[in-house]
Every structure is written in structure tokens, then in C-alpha cells.
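anyone else get weird line breaks when pasting these?? whatever heres mine. first is seq + C-alpha cells for prot A
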Amino acid sequence: MTGDEMDRRHFLSSFLGGVTVPLALPCIAQASTLTGRRLILVELSGANDGLNTVVPIGDDRYFEMRPTLALGPADTIRIDRDVALHRALRPLIAAWQADDLAIVQGLGHEGQTRSHFIAIDQWQTGGQGDRGWLTEDIGRLPKVEERDALGISLDGELGPLRSTDGGWISLTSFAQAHTAPVPFAARSRINAAQNPALSILQGRSRQLDQTLRAIAEKIDRERPTRMEPIVAGPIGQQATMAARLIAAGVDAPVLKIKIDGFDTHENQLWRHADRLDLLGTALAGLRHRLILSGHWDSTLIMTYSEFGRRVAENGSGGTDHGAAAPHFLLGGGVRGGLRGVAPDLGALVDGDVGFTIDYRALYDRVLADWFGIPDNRFISVRRPDLDGLFRA
């Protein structure tokens, strides 16, 4: 390895801090090339409380079932006659006023489990198989020449980017993958040509090395105009990385970031406010930087979480695992506003709000209307009330 190669790797590792940089399918890159668009997925890990995020401030039953956790006018920002946002989300009001923020209400599905592991897997795969919900349909597009990093998870977990057709490697393990095959072959006196598994590992190592070089070179050229970091904890760091990768011209149609800490069984008032403050600051900062770099209109940001939380508060000043919840779509190509039907607090199911939109109907719209794949795996749950989510 030359000195330049070592310096380049050191810079890239320092920039990304050892998080996962996966390779997505070449066909995902074609989706981005054909539409000029990208998607940033934002995982709210732990199950976000939708009722204290998008607050039904006009419904007396909300206050009755949450005598200490209900948020009043002083704790919220009204966005509609009967709906308000948690005041910690104030940084997103500019996007709301610019018609860049859509809130899709009542997202969930039949047979909702309260298991974190099972529920997040359903959201990440679309409830079918072990592949990310994006990959199967986008994989049907004709193959194109390989891009830089074609899919990047900046939180170290692949989640919805899992695919049997792609190679997904973290930077922390990349050095081992790059150097291990040859010494192993030498020690074992194994010819890679006679060992298919070893040959595949070496081939992927070379592919990853070329990809990381291309990313590092683009980032290196962008360094003189490095943007100020978004100060919002780990999600702020990830959002800054995403903005820098995009500004540097790294071809990555799908990015993923995450914020932890939404499992608020106790002391929810301050814990939830803290999480939403970091989320709002990170997304507003990302929006600002994408506007400056000219990529806001071609970027869609979408939040998701494993489920919502119960309507009634528990005895520990928190809420337990629930079902449906609202989620956010942000971007210059988004038609903002409230979408869907808010769950009826007078028609609870086992203490949970019932879902009014199957979450996969939103996936259908992202694939069909954002990436231009109308005949996708979620067409059977298509919802007319989600028409026009995106600008032409």
C-alpha cells in the first residue's frame, strides 16, 4: 500500500468514524440517475411516542388519559386547528411553513407486535423476507455501471438496506477484509482460484477498496469547503456526514441515519423532549445544508420507528409499547401538510390507537412516485389519499 493510499484511508476512517459504509445494488444507482433523487431514512429507535410528537391538542380524551404527560399550549406549536407539534420540534417549523414537511398520520399494520426486534424488522423489510424493503423492486431495474457507494448506512446498521445481492461492509472490518485473504491463503497454501469462498472474499475486497478510494477522493476535494457540523449528538454527526457526502458528489441514492432513546417507559417528559430536540435540530440542520448545496429538491427524508406507544400513561411517568404512530417526510420535492386520518382515541384496541394507513402504502409511494417504480411489491396496499405526496 502506498503512502497516498494510507493517507486516503486514514482520512476516510477519521471522517466516518468507523461507521458502516455499505455497497448497494447498481440498480439503485440507476434509480437515482433516472430520477435525480435520493432517500435518507431516519430510524427513531426504541418506538417514538406519536401522540406527544404530533399532539391531538383538540381532543379532550388525550388529556384525560395522560393526566401528567399530556402537552398543553405552552408545550406545543399549533399547526392545525386540532393538531400541534411538540415544542422541541420548533426547528422544523420553517420546513412546515415552506410546505416542505408532510406528516403522515396513523401508520401501522395488522397484527402489530410489541416486540422491538420483530417490529423493527417488519418496518425494515416490509414484513416479507430478510431483504430491505427497497432492494427487491429497485433491483428489477436494468443494471448500470457501478457507482461510488451506492447505499450508505451512517449508523453502523444495515436495517432496510439489507440485500442478498449486495456487499455490506463496515469500515472497522474493512481493513481485515482487505488484508486477510492473501495472508490466509499463503499460510494455508490455498489457491484462491481453487477456493470459491476465498475468491469471492478477495473480489469483494478489491471492489470495496475501489469504492472507498472513489469516496475518499471526492471527500478530499470537498475538504476546503467543509461545512460546520450539526450539533445534535450522534444524529447530528450522522446528518453532517450525509450532507458532506452529498455535497461532495458521492453517488449514494440511499442513506440511513438513526437516533436512539425513544423507549420512554419512565420519565418521558424530559427524555422525549431531549430526543425530539436532537431530531429537530439534526433534520433542520440537514435541510439547511442541502439547500445551500443545491440538493434539497432532489432529497427525500423519511422517519420510521418500530411502533408507537400506548395512549394511557403508566405509573412511572412514561408510556409502554403501542401500535400506530405518525411519521415525517421532508424535502424540497415534498408537498407538505397533514396526510391520512388521525387515529380515533375513542376507538382504542387493547389500549392502543388503531392504524389508519398501512405503513407499506407509504413505501409504495416512495417507490412509485419518488423513485419511479409504479409496479412495486406494495402496490396491493396503494392508498389514493396519499396521491400527490411529491411535486412533479
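and prot B, same format (seq, then C-alpha cells)
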Amino acid sequence: MSEVNLGIIGLEAIVTYVPYLERSRRFYVDQLDFAEIGRSDAGMSQRGKQETAVYRSGDCTVIASTPQGRGGRAWRWLQRHPAGVGGLVLSVKDAQHAFEVLESRGATPIDAVSTHHDEWGTLRMFSILSPLGGATIRFVERRGYRALYPGFQATGPQAHESRYGITSFDHVTSNFETMAPALLWMEHVLGFKQYWDVQFHTEDVGGPKSYGSGLRSVVMKDPESGVKFANNEPWRPHFKHSQINIFTEENRGDGIQHVAFVVRDILSSVKGLRARGISFLDTPAAYYDALPSRIQATGINQIDEDISDLRTLGVLVDGDKNGEYMLQVFMAEASATHDDLQAGPFFYELIQRKGSRGFGEGNFRALFESIERTQKNEAVS
């Protein structure tokens, strides 16, 4: 593989396909406090057979499309999957350079590089297929071009930050029945490097049982931009009980499981979002009972937050021996949020990094251990 970088600048946007656009708007605008910054114009909606709205907070842009009749991309996606992320948009320094490098490495382009103009400048873009459950990746180069994308009309100010401090994307996580082909594609086509890995199973804690959940996780990172793709697969035994396998069944195939938003202050974010009706995954009390000793064992030694606040809000902590740490929490799946299986198993993570660049290996283990202890205590009682 050539060591030439693609010239990726960052993750610009995610593309979601949803059955109800107004439900999407209520979630992003009314609950997460994103701003709606654009809509597809009549010509684009007619050509693509879908209506599209664009939401933004900080550097996070979410594009949501819903079918308008049969045959469009959103309609085809929702025939194969529940609602979810069907595309990523990466900004690049030079679209033609990225296209040529990707094609030389065996990428599958959907189209050639196209050039578009507005009164301020030029935009060039193209898209390729990916192994991320059918999601496409669009590469976009902007040279003064201010419009969102061709075919979109602005519906409000383009700059906005949610009152809950959502500032940027941290990473994208995908689940696979087997992830080796995707990892090879990320390495040999995108030029990403392995950044982090972990494997864990609840049987490590409680001994052999007739149930349990395990996973293997590998994070791949673009060496220039720092864009990170996390990737999971189930781990035996009890393969079918793995949360990763359950996701692929509910998603009707591999796909993007969650996207992580960076927030400025996770405690205030969770408090505010809860007040707006956002649900988060529960964390067993045993996790917080063991947290003081785990903070010492990992070498963090001290955190700024009160553990009672973390317990109340369900926020997780992880870190390393140099004292740096991170705080994270997971929203409920979209299907639970909207009480609709067609909304899918996709969800969002909130993350606040206090120096740590890791991915919560300690949280995987500690959370699984606490679940095991809770289940064991319930069985005895």
C-alpha cells in the first residue's frame, strides 16, 4: 500500500436515512438543540426522490433524508435496513488527489469528481462505496465555497452550537459479524493505521455460564487528520448473546452502531438533555461502588467530578497512568427513543476528554464486571 495520505481534514457530516423527517427534526432541534441550517430544494428533492434536512451544532453536521416515493437512495436504504447512518462526509484538501489515490488502491467510486461553484468559490466532491454496512463515503474539497452542498438552500444561520455544548465528532463505531475484511479495507484503501484494540468477555469475570456477552474492538485512525473509526465484532463463547451480534440482527446486517459527540461539560449536558426527554443507558450501581478503587488502580488518582454526580447521571470514567481521563455516556437506541423498531438500533455517545485519547477499555471491563456482580447477587437473593 502507498504511504501517501489522502489529505483528509476531518469528518464533516453524517448522512442518516429516516422514515419521518419531522420526527428527526424534533429529535435534533427540539431535544438536542441543533439548528436546522438547510433543506433540499425542489429540484434536488424531485431528482433524488427524497426530502432532506440538515442540522448542525458546532462542527457536527447531520444530514437526514426521507423517501419521497419509490426508487431514491433513502427508499432503497429503508428497504434493507431500519433507520440509521448510511453515509459519511469527509473533508479533504484536494478531491482529485484523494480520488486518484483511492482508485489506485482498489476503491470503488460511485462517480467521478464533480465541480460546483457559488459566488464565493468552488466545491469538488465524489463518493465511494464502503464495507460499513452499505454506507457510502463522500469526499468534499472546499475552496471558498460557502453553500452547504449543491441542491441545498439555507434555512437559517450556518453557525450554531447547541446549548448542551456539542462541539465536534469524536469517532464513528461500526459493528460487524466479522470485521477483518473492513479492517483490511481501512488499512489498504483508506490508509488508516491501527490505533487501539481490546477484547473482553463476561466469562472472564464470573466463570463458565450458559450465557454471556463478548466483543473484540479495533480502532483505526487516519494518521494525518486523526479521524477515527472504531470497529466491533462478537466474541465467543455464546456468540449469539453478544450485543454486537444482536445489533447486526436488528440492523439486518453490519452497520454504523453509534457516533460520538464531543461535549464541553458532560455533566451539564446530561442534566439538560434529560430535562428535554433524552434517555440514556442505565449503569449498574455496582459500577460506582467500585469506581474509587478503580480510579486509583488505573493511575488516574483524582478526578474533578463528584462520584455521586456521576452515579446520578450514569456517566462513566476511564483513564490511564498519567492522570488523564475521559468521561462518557451513551444515549438509548433510536428504537427505544422513538418507541419504534423501524427507528433502528443506532445511538449517540457523549464524550468529554480530559487529556485521555483512549476508548474506554476500563469501562468495557468495569461495566461488564459490575453487570456480572449484580446478576450474581440477584441469583443468590
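btw re prot B: The mean pLDDT is 91. The chain is about 30% helix and 35% strand.
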